[in-house]
Specification:
The structure is a single chain. The chain has 202 residues and is α/β, with parallel strands linked by helices. The chain has a single domain, classed as Vaccinia Virus protein VP39 (Rossmann fold), CATH 3.40.50. It is built from six helices and nine strands; from the N terminus they run H-H-E-E-H-E-H-E-H-E-E-H-E-E-E. A seven-stranded mixed sheet has the order 5-4-3-6-7-8-9. A two-stranded antiparallel sheet has the order 1-2. Strand 3, helix 4 and strand 4 form a beta-alpha-beta unit. It is globular. Bound molecules: S-adenosyl-L-homocysteine (SAH). The site of S-adenosyl-L-homocysteine has 23 residues, from strand 2, helix 4 and strand 4.
């Protein structure tokens, strides 16, 4: 975790949660030896497990509190979602790739983190049945701020979203004010796989 500290991650709860969670469980066993390097890796279906720094950065911005109800877009390897569960959040995570969603059924930490719920669907739609949420985190490059997700945020809720600027994305934190307007904060640039419309065919 020293590398994350050096890169500027200061939230001790985030560092401890990531330290506790063995990242190689979320990756192909062929990558065991290099699973702890600070870089993204391929998972199935042409997708990636985010770089630890990116996970730490987004999680720190999210300011997770025990019991927070969090919507995540882009389940992928389940690593980010599990970090949120370790921090005590109730996590609702959506994946559009059927094969990746199917993998969540064999997730090894399923009984350890019962507060982690998996959904197969289009993240642009969110989960109206479970809304409103305390927090929203998007782990793919969003072409714009999805209005349906904004509608599913509680007053005072925040959304961490990497918004497209051509080849890179700008990390943003949006906070919903009492009058429904959004306050915007702008952070560093990152590079994510794209957030795509619809879900893959069953
Ligand atoms: N949070 C993941 C990061 C995975 S990469 C992790 O910790 O590993 C981003 C994921 O977002 C990919 O699995 C991709 O299939 C998914 N994705 C892209 N667009 C989506 C959408 N509209 N709805 C849901 N998932 C989406």
């Amino acid at each position: 975790m020293d590398i994350l500290r050096q890169k500027g991650i200061t939230d001790e709860n985030v560092l401890a949660a990531m330290n506790e969670l063995p990242r190689h469980f979320f990756m192909d066993s062929a990558l065991d030896n290099i699973a702890y390097e600070d870089r993204a890796f391929p998972i199935a279906e042409g997708q990636t497990i985010s770089q630890p720094y990116t996970v730490a950065y987004q999680t720190q911005l999210l300011k997770v509190k025990q019991g927070d109800k969090i919507l995540e877009i882009g389940t992928g390897s389940i690593y980010q979602a599990t970090v949120l569960a370790v921090l005590g959040a109730k996590v609702f995570t959506i994946e559009r790739q059927k094969k990746l969603y199917e993998k969540t059924k064999e997730y090894i930490f399923k009984t350890k983190y019962p507060q982690l719920k998996f959904f197969y669907g289009d993240g642009f739609e969110g989960l109206p049945t479970y809304a409103p949420f305390d927090k929203v985190i998007i782990t793919a490059a969003a072409p714009f701020i999805p209005p349906k997700l904004v509608a599913q945020m509680k007053t005072g809720a925040c959304m961490i979203i990497p918004v497209d600027e051509g080849d890179v994305q700008r990390m943003m934190r949006l906070t919903k004010n009492d009058n429904g307007t959004m306050e915007e904060e702008i952070f560093e640039k990152f590079s994510f796989v794209p957030m795509l419309k619809g879900r893959t065919a069953p």
